[in-house]
Structure formats: C-alpha cells, structure tokens
Amino acid sequence: MAGGKKRDAFATYSAAYAACRDLWFQDHLKPTVALVAQRIGIQHTAVIARALRDWKKDVDFERLQQDRLAAARAPEAARDARLDEALAGVVRLAEENAQKALAQDRAALEETRRALEAETAAARAERDRALQEWAAYRAAAEPAQAALEAQLARADAARAEAEAGRRAAEAEAAALKAALEEARARIAQLDAVRAELQAAHTEALQALEARAEAEYRWHLRRIAEEKAAAQAALQAQLEGLAARLRELEPEARAAPGCAWPWRRRNGAPRPSPPNGTGCGAARAAGAQPGPAPGGGAAGAAGAAVEDPFPPQAETGKNPRTP
Fold it and tell me: For residues 12 and 40, is the Cβ–Cβ distance under 8 A?
C-alpha cells in the first residue's frame, strides 16, 4: 500500500511538472497550483506545489518572465528570433533537468520501495507473531476473565447493597439530625423557661426575704418597744409601790397586829391577831380596813403590803426580776 502511494505521488509530480511547462511555453500562461490541478485533473496540491516550485527553479522562471516582458517591448522580427532561441534553450535545459530529476526520483523511489517491502514483510511477520501471542493469551485469559466477571458481578451486588445501606443510613442520619435539632430547640425553650422561672423564683425569694427581714425588724422593734414600755410600766409600778411602802411603813410599825408581814419577810412565823381584830380580821371579813386605831390605815397597808409581787401565771417569774 505504501509503495502504491509513492508511485501515485511520483506520477502526479511528473504530470504537474509537464503541465507547468505546457502552460508557460504553449499556452503562454503563468503556471499556478490551481491551473496545474485543473490541467492534470488531480487535486493533490502538496505534490503539485512541489513540482511547480522545482520547475520554476529549474527553468529560472524569473529570467523567463523578464525575457518575455522584454520580447513584448522589442520589434516583432527581433522578438521572434530571440524568443525561439531562448525557448529552445529553456526547453532543452528543462528536459535535461527533468530527466535528471526523474532518474533521481526513480532511484529513490525504488530504494524506498525495497525498504518498504522489507518493512512490510517484517511488519507482517510481527503481526502474525502478535496474533499468535494474542490467541494464546486470550485462551489462557478466558478462565481468568470469567472469574473476574463473576467477581465483578459479586462486587456490583455488594456495591448495590452497600449503596442501599448508605441511603438508609443517610435517611436515618437525617431523621436523627432532625430529632436532634428538635431536641435542641426544645432544650433551648426549656432552658429559657427554666431561666425565666429561676429569675421569677429568685425575684420572689428576694422579695420574701426582704419582706421577712422587714417584718422581723418590725417585730424586733415592736418587741423592744413593748419590752421597754413594760419595763417602764413595771418600774413605775415598783417605784409607786416603794413610795407607798415608804408612806405606810410608819403606820405598819405602829400597828402590832399588822406587823406580821414584815416579820414574815424576815423569816419569823406569822402571828394570829388578838381578839379577831386587826388586819387579819379585816382580810377575813373581805373588807378594807378603815382609819380606826390599830386597824384602819395600818390594816389597809397590811392588806396591800402582804404580798405586793405575786407570781405571774404566764411566765412563772416575779415581776421584780428583770
């Protein structure tokens, strides 16, 4: 196949080279790739361009153009003679160069053909060897291929199962995440309620403590005031009684029948009043003693002084003790 392409390229090159010569010398046209391709009927522009370039170089195309222009400006007779001579020389030179080029191309093409044939034979041998190796490899690889296909099938099944598990896990994770978010929101709501209740409880406790403290202080002040008032009243009563005792003491000393309270204070036994008279008779009769001698004022004093500080039932203490 490669040798056929080389022969086609050589034929195209030769036809294009000859077409350049005919266009210039016979048709008096400047050769171009398009004109040459139209003339030979082959659209192999790369080979045609190479042939056109070689032809212009071989015939010295610039000089030919200058000669043609000069001949066009010269007289008709002189122009024909010089033109014929120039054309004959150019044709001979072109033919000689074309023959040389053709000979060189033929030798190169022949050498290339032989090399290509050798390469083709080597390639065919290599292809046959590769085909044999491929057949042996394929025969040996078919069981392994079947095993690999079975393994791939199992792997695909496992992958599908894992994918299903992954989707289920993702769904479960999404549900857990939603539940977690809901729980967090609920916890935040409960924390807010707890903080609000804690603040309300703290505020109420502080208010109760303040109220209890105020009431406690008020009761302390009230107790202190009542105690001070009671002590003042008791002190006034004691002072009044002491003053009364001091007033009645002379009369009590002068009345023999009413002297027993004083002796009782001093540890002496209580005497009986004589003849049922005196302070004791007045007390027994339930009447207040009058101003009679030995039983009037003295009897009243004895009745008042008999036990001026009776024990109180509420506390069991004597009011004389603070």
Answer: yes
pLDDT for residue 263: 45
How remote is the C-alpha of 25 from its chain's centroid? Answer: 88
Total of domains in the chain: 1
d(Cα 321, Cα 308) in Å, to the nearest integer? 14
Say how far apart CA 307 and CA 245 lie, in whole Å.
Answer: 12
- Helix (H) / strand (E) containing 98: helix 76-254
pLDDT digits (tens, 9 = 90+) for 244-276: 888 888 887 887 655 445 444 445 454 444 444
Average pLDDT, the chain: 77
Domain that holds residue 89: 2-140
Structural domain includes residue 116:
yes
Q: Would residue 8 count as lying in a domain?
A: yes
Please name which of 252, 266, 237 lies closest in space to residue 298, comparing C-alpha atoms: 252
pLDDT of residue 285: 43
Identify whether 101 is part of a domain.
yes
Distance from C-alpha of 247 to C-alpha of 297, rounded to nearest angstrom: 11
Q: Is residue 147 part of a domain?
A: no
The Cα-based distances of 244 to 40, 254, 257, 300, 309 in angstroms read 173, 16, 19, 11, 14
From the list 82, 85, 87, the residue with the least C-alpha distance to 28 is 87
CA-to-CA dists, residue 48 to 3, 12, 21, 39, 45, angstroms: 19, 7, 13, 11, 5
